[in-house]
Amino acid sequence: MIYIVVVVVVDIGAVARSEVADVLHAHDATGPREVAKRCCRLQALAALTIMIPILLPAPPPSSPRDAASRLLDEIVGLPTSIHGTLADRLYQTRAGDAEALAPGPTVDQSLGRLVGLATACHARADRPSPVDRNLAHLHVVGEVGRQLASDPSLSQRAAEVREAAARAEALLERSYASDALSQPWPAALPALAPGPPAGRGRPLSTAADWLLVPTPALDDDQLLRLALLRLVLAGFPYLANYELLVAGELAAVAALGRADHRPVAFCGAGALPLTGVILHVLTGAHVELIEIDPATAALAADLGQRLAAAGVLRAGAVTIHQADAATIDPARYATVVTASLLPSATIRAVMAAVATVPAERGRPLLAVRSAAGLAGWFCYEPVPPHWGEAAGLCHRGAVVPLTSVSLAPDPPLGTGAVPIDSPALLAVAPPAVLNRTELFT
């Protein structure tokens, strides 16, 4: 079987900088809707900064096994696979080279390929119905899992891809945080006259066509804050993914009927704490960011201060604390969220701490970012729901990306898919979202 890979490489740095400067310098005279329109254009351009492999038409695989083998070759099998490209850099990192997986053409291309493969539908295009295509995709995912389980060398390479992706993601976010701090920003957002919300259910990003969860209504003030955030991070290729992930988690919280005005804790904030920032912009909640690494926490704090000075954040509403997430007092919070890159031992410690808060004293909602299926094997460490149950928590359900939802009542085994009519399915996120979020009380 022959297929052709065309790699699209677009450097839009100059274009993005020009657009950002134009909007920032003219924002006083530019309405929030015009700002948002330009931001959406920038968001679309930013997606092109990833080197996107495009598979030209080729004969479809003849079976789920063939499709799974081809997918494994692309990720961990061939010398030109993602593993083959990143393995040496991972080993250099383990040997002490902290920058071996820093952003650059090779690493950026590999991450883009990995995200694309993990979020794609791997069903044959000639399937007659959405249910058939959905089940065919899940059969491919299940076959990938079976081949990984039967071949220890493939399983080891998959774990190395996951480790390399995690290290590269942390460095990518550090790089964009540093770049954002080095750019000129406006002194503050223009004051907006009070008035009714500008609209209901305004899309959060250019990926809104895939948005399957309720979209918060944004007034002009929120719209402008979100627009400026997009401008200062115009080149960051995964901003839309964060927006959609947070929207899905907010929908799940609403489905559980939670209404609590205590702060939100986000554990494992990293240098670019987009979850906390987006959550505050969309809800007005007070967010405390927890980060164990002193240098990373300092960078996140500097970025938060700049965002507050520019008016994106309310003064004092998003704070950073350099601390071990395992030591927080969960009784202080309405919701505790654990990042997908947080070590497993820390996640289990947070679960145990949350479980010590009696329900009658207001035990917080715990949202644990995990992954399943392809994303769980190659991108993020899965967090089994039974971890929370073993700690004494009640598993309330999950936010699941569309690629891990089964349209049939009995999904194929080994896929981690959730039936569409399952009461455990609190919200369905777009396929561009890698994470699955487990919720506990």
Short description, anyone?
The protein is an alpha/beta fold. It has helices at residues 13-26, 32-47, 64-77, 82-94, 105-119, 130-150, 152-182, 220-232, 239-255, 274-283, 294-309, 344-355, 373-378, 385-390; strands spanning 5-8, 52-55, 264-267, 287-291, 318-322, 335-338, 365-370, 395-401, 405-406, 418-419, 425-429, 436-440.
Describe this structure in words.
This protein has 441 residues and is α/β, with parallel strands linked by helices. Residues 1-17, 23-28, 39-59 and 192-212 have low confidence and may be disordered. Helix 6 packs across helix 7, helix 7 packs across helix 11 (294-309) and helix 9 crosses helix 10. The strands form three sheets. The chain has an eight-stranded mixed beta sheet, with helices on both faces. The chain has a two-stranded antiparallel ribbon with strand order 1-2. The chain has a two-stranded parallel ribbon with strand order 9-10. The protein has a domain at 206-440: Vaccinia Virus protein VP39 (Rossmann fold), CATH 3.40.50.150. 46% of the residues lie in helices and 12% in strands. The longest helix is centred in the middle third of the chain and has 31 residues, at 152-182.
